[in-house]
Amino acid sequence: MKIALIAHDRKKDDLVQFVVAFKPILTGHALFATGTTGKRVIDEAGLPVTLFRSGPLGGDQQIGSMIAQDQMDMVIFFRDPLTAQPHEPDVTALIRLCDVYNIPLATNMGTAEVLLKGLEEGFVDWRLIRERRE
């Protein structure tokens, strides 16, 4: 599975801690992340990550492009709902693309845990079955 990891500045610590906690599940999956978030995951969790630009510089749009091309299977995006983001239209577009292409999306730790536990149990395998038919 291809999994995108994104976090707003005030949520980066939470995402890194989350990735460390769920490292056994994430190991073996292809991870993609926006700039600083991805670098922190590499440094602190020791997992390989394909890096994109930071969110405000187009990283969200790069991940959105992968979604639109059906090249992303899941998005974990720890958003900061209490801080205005200068690239909010990009964030909204990314979320919309997840809805359009039926990409599982978690925007907080509780939902992210459910998605990864589901991934571990095979509940997201429908993405793989669909890929094999195409």
Question: What does this 3D model show about the protein?
Answer:
This protein has helices at 12-21, 23-26, 35-45, 59-68, 88-100, 109-121, 126-133, and strands at 2-7, 30-33, 50-51, 74-78, 105-106. It has 134 residues and is an alpha/beta fold. Helices cover 51% and strands 14% of the residues. It is globular and about 35 Å long.
Percentage of residues in DSSP E strands? 5-15%
Counting DSSP H or I runs of 4 or more residues, the number of helices is: 7
Biggest sheet descriptor: 5 strands, parallel
Spatial shape: globular
Assign a percent range to the helix content.
40-55%
Overall strand count: 5
The gist of it:
With 134 residues, this protein is α/β, with parallel strands linked by helices. The protein has helices spanning 12-21, 23-26, 35-45, 59-68, 88-100, 109-121, 126-133, and strands spanning 2-7, 30-33, 50-51, 74-78, 105-106. It is globular, with a radius of gyration of 14 Å.
